[in-house]
Here is the input.
Amino acid sequence: MSEQVDRRYGPATLPRSRGPLSAAVLDALRRPPHDLPAGLGADLDPADPITDEDLQLTLFVCYELHYRGWRGVDEAWEWQPTLLALRAEAERPFEAALRRLVGAPSVPAAGVAAGLAELVAADDGPPLAATLQRRADLSQFREFVAHRSVYHLREADPHSWALPRLGGPAKAALVEIQTDEYGNGRLDRMHAELFRRTLQRLGLDTSYGAHLDAAPAVTLATNNLMSLFGLHRRWRGALLGHLAAFEMTSSLPNRRYGNGLRRLGLDEVATRFYDEHVEADAVHEQIAAHDMCGGLVRAEPALAPDVLFGAAAGLAVDRLFAAHLLDSWAAGRSSLRTPVPPALPPKVSLVALPAVAPPAPPALV
Ligand SMILES: [Fe+2]
Ligand SMILES: [Fe+2]
Here is the structure.
């Protein structure tokens, strides 16, 4: 395999620092594993942890050691005790901010699935999907896709951390969802690979982590939230609640994204990722709420509040993400830290598309 092919799947290149803490961590990671200076990060008190560039990048860099790692960084850093201690210091204000943001959702008498449905029904976030469907220009759509690439190029991985921590019906339900996310074991159907084609059709770099430096703190926070829940067994309830909220709010926005790309003249290869989610997630939402989260809470009733906290936190951080994009565009500026580069000619060979007809373009008001 060539170097270029390797770059599709990671590891990514270390990002640029965004403040003293991320600078210290990035500097350390470039060297062999060693103890970090005592007290590094101990006095962290950012005004708004969710939009603090230095904090969110530091968390992202630490978490990524558990996914693909970083190009040129010694793999032993993953379990270096002083780096783990620093990560815990950085998680503290992030967790506190999430609590301030959503409180502690109460579990209705009807159960956790009903509680999830209530949270989703009450979720009236900024109209990002409608804007992308009806009004966004091509450069704004490319920005949106660049933001989302941080997650979609490893789609489903954070929730897979729950698998070894579950048994019984909840595990079976999670496996059913993740199997679809991973294309039933077919590379060309993996959602991450479908998304790579969307990037490619939009002339954007398709390699893993390519748009990390451009992604602001709030985009990193949407990812760090999943990693926080995924990497701590104590947050397994929140992780499943997060996934359920994700699936329950996916079908309609994905229909809008696909229609937005069609409005802009993109073809079915570009829209396939979104079209695929319209029907898949209409099924996933039922499995996620009733079989997965319901199954977990039947086995471990004490986790019900965590399930709803994870769902509420996911929805709330996503509202902040949507507001950031819309506010940036309304002010006439890019929502990225660095402008999205002009379209690249496609130069990375892609996995062949499966020989099936794409879904018919859905009609929408
Ligand atoms: Fe997916
Ligand atoms: Fe899904």
Remarks:
- The chain has 15 helices and no strands.
- The two ends are 46 Å apart (CA to CA).
- The first helix runs from residue 3 to 9.
